[in-house]
From TrEMBL:
Residues 128-225 bind DNA. It comes from Paenibacillus piri. Coiled coil: none annotated. One of its GO terms (biological process) is regulation of DNA-templated transcription. Gene3D superfamilies: 3.40.50.2300, 6.10.250.690, Winged helix-like DNA-binding domain superfamily/Winged helix DNA-binding domain (1.10.10.10). Keywords: DNA-binding, Phosphoprotein, Transcription, Transcription regulation, Two-component regulatory system. InterPro entries: CheY-like_superfamily, OmpR/PhoB-type_DNA-bd, Sig_transdc_resp-reg_receiver, WalR-like, WH-like_DNA-bd_sf. It is found in: Cytoplasm. One of its GO terms (molecular function) is transcription cis-regulatory region binding. This is Response regulator transcription factor. The keyword Transcription applies. Residues 6-119 form the Response regulatory domain.
Length: 228
């Protein structure tokens, strides 16, 4: 018999916490509840959490801040459940590393279904810790990269940027998305271009004619590799 998954609910609305707790427990989940980011971080340190469902607007740190904090050290699946339905909020949530964004008009049944879907994808992803693009190979678990069989000397941030791009080939990441995710929104376009330039010096045969990390002019960057 499989061990029940534990979902961390983070919301300052007690009614939402109680409603979602009831539905999740009926579906066989264990539930941990927190009314703010501080209590959520305490729960993450205290017990194993398999999935986080969090609101954006909360006392103290926002849900965006909490998502950024979690992503610095963990790949635990994160879903936003928010009353905010603006596209920019959704884009920001995904750029910070969220796995899904659900508007609170959704039924509890839909929320549970989407939690299950994210957990299924996460389970498959854990078994795919090597991204093999032929010449370029990234081992996410060992935190190692190689080009033509030779190890690459990447800084932790360079490795994280490369992996984030490579996990979603041909998806464009804007300058602001990269800045928000890797520099907490501090800096500007130049900050991103300098780091991408240094990364290209290490992974590209000809950095002035890159084949892996391609510039989408005026927008950002995308990764052009094809998985083997």
């Amino acid at each position: 018999m499989s061990t029940p998954k534990t979902v961390l609910l983070v919301d300052d609305d007690q009614a939402i916490l109680e409603l979602m707790r009831d539905f999740l427990e009926d579906e066989g989940f264990c539930v941990e509840a927190a009314s703010d980011s501080r209590k959520a971080l305490e729960a993450l340190e205290r017990i194993r959490i398999d999935c986080v469902l969090l609101d954006i607007m909360m006392p103290g740190q926002s849900g965006f801040d909490l998502c950024r904090h979690i992503r610095r050290t963990s790949e635990t699946p994160i879903l936003f459940l928010s009353a905010r339905d603006e596209d920019m909020d959704k884009i920001r949530g995904f750029s910070l590393g969220a796995d899904d964004y659900i508007v609170k008009s959704a039924t509890p049944e839909e929320v549970v279904a989407r939690i299950k879907a994210v957990l299924r994808r996460s389970g498959r992803k854990q078994h795919e810790h090597v991204l093999d693009f032929g010449q370029l190979v990234l081992d996410l678990k060992a935190h190692e990269a190689s080009l033509d069989g030779k190890p690459l000397s990447l800084t932790p941030k360079e490795f994280d940027i490369l992996c984030s791009l490579a996990e979603y080939p041909r998806q464009v990441f804007t300058y602001n998305q990269l800045l928000d995710r890797f520099w907490d929104g501090v800096g500007d376009k130049h900050t991103v271009t300098v780091h991408i330039g240094r990364l290209r010096e290490k992974v590209e045969d000809n950095p002035s004619l890159p084949k892996w990390i391609v510039n989408v002019w005026g927008v950002g960057y995308r990764f052009e590799g094809v998985r083997k």
